[in-house]
Write a structure and sequence with these properties.
This protein is of the alpha/beta class. The protein is built from 21 helices and 11 strands. Strand 7, helix 12 and strand 8 form a beta-alpha-beta unit. The chain starts with 9 loop residues before the first helix and ends in an 8-residue tail after the last helix.
Length: about 475
Amino acid sequence: MSYNSKSLRAEEFINHEEILETLQYAHKHAENIELIDAIIEKAKQRKGLSHREAAVLLDCTIPEKINEIYTLAEQIKKDFYGNRIVMFAPLYLSNYCVNGCVYCPYHAKNKHIARKKLTQDEIQREVIALQDMGHKRLAIESGEDPTMNPIEYILESIRTIYSIKHKNGSIRRVNVNIAATTVENYRKLKEAGIGTYILFQETYHKESYEKLHPTGPKHNYAYHTEAMDRAMEGGIDDVGLGVLFGLETYRYELVGLLMHAEHLEAVHGVGPHTISVPRIRRADDIDPDVFENGIDDNTFAKIVAVIRIAVPYTGMIISTRESQSCRERVLHLGISQISGGSRTSVGGYADNKPEDQDSAQFEVSDTRTLDEVVCWLMKLGYIPSFCTACYREGRTGDRFMSLCKSGQILNCCHPNALMTLKEYLEDYASEQTKAIGEALITKELQKIPRDKTREIATDRIKRIAQGERDFRF
């Protein structure tokens, strides 16, 4: 079976032999300065790299060239995303699951984990708690259980989330991270108004995948890996990829991840909207030390930098799995979205209690409140953005990518970020956070290049202070 990025068969667009050849090629050229320089020069064109070129940069062992890779990743991040960081929170609806995934405490054989499924009333309480923090964008999560968590439950939950308006709060974008499903169900999710459909591959290594998923519908490698094609066939044009680093060798996973991105571009004309980079974490009966492929923070930073260079237009997400220090480092290298104030247990927000590890999917490393995270970001010079304008204005899929690639997206993203930050400061921020934020907005308004746009943004920010809400370019 040969490699074919345009194939709709998983084992052809994620081709094992091609990955092995790529890894051999990268290892052979890890110190080839001439080739590495040529790849870096190509990357400076901001049009991305092939999986093979990216693998060479990942394997590069020359210190000064590694520094060049980091410097370029940081510059590309600034070119496409400026100093904006999009904020979101996960919302766990149910941890009932029929799969046997050996790295997840939701696996069906775990008989002592506290199982829970939120009612619509409980979802309302969770959403109000999230709105009271200041969140506008959620990623809903659910275990795979056709009886307990059918698509009808997910759709009803989405309707509930969008319907809740509490004080000045509202959830303006619901991203969905649920198990691989049918084209018909993806069509229903699209009609429900979801933002991005997110599905982590966990591992692209087929043999390892089947061992890590010994039972349940997720065992089917091809069905899972081909899910994004079905999602796009169902009309969802923003999809999010990701692997769980630590299950297989990180070099194999990076190549597979980029091959998947290339496949989406080749077949659908648009690559992934986001790429997530979670690392395996301790949870209930899961000990991450039993997995032999864990990666240290330096390797993790290099992975983030190489992904940013290889797919410059794609958003990159990091969650509260990672510590404050780790998150701070990779923000510079490519991350554009982070979670804040997260709970990974079902019903964890409304209870407002310490995270119940018996029902959490993984241990949270960054336990700060959303306000503390927002304040921290601004002290680092970033603009915490609660913007959902592109999704609500129909700038998704190839429309978003064409704007992003041309640089035009920056003409609306920067002022939109400032206006949503102003909303947060007025409605939710502590006094310290508000003072830092007001100074940041005043400074950042001056960076808007178009006089007319700057005038409109300035006027709208004044109107937000007077009580108006939800402006967007």
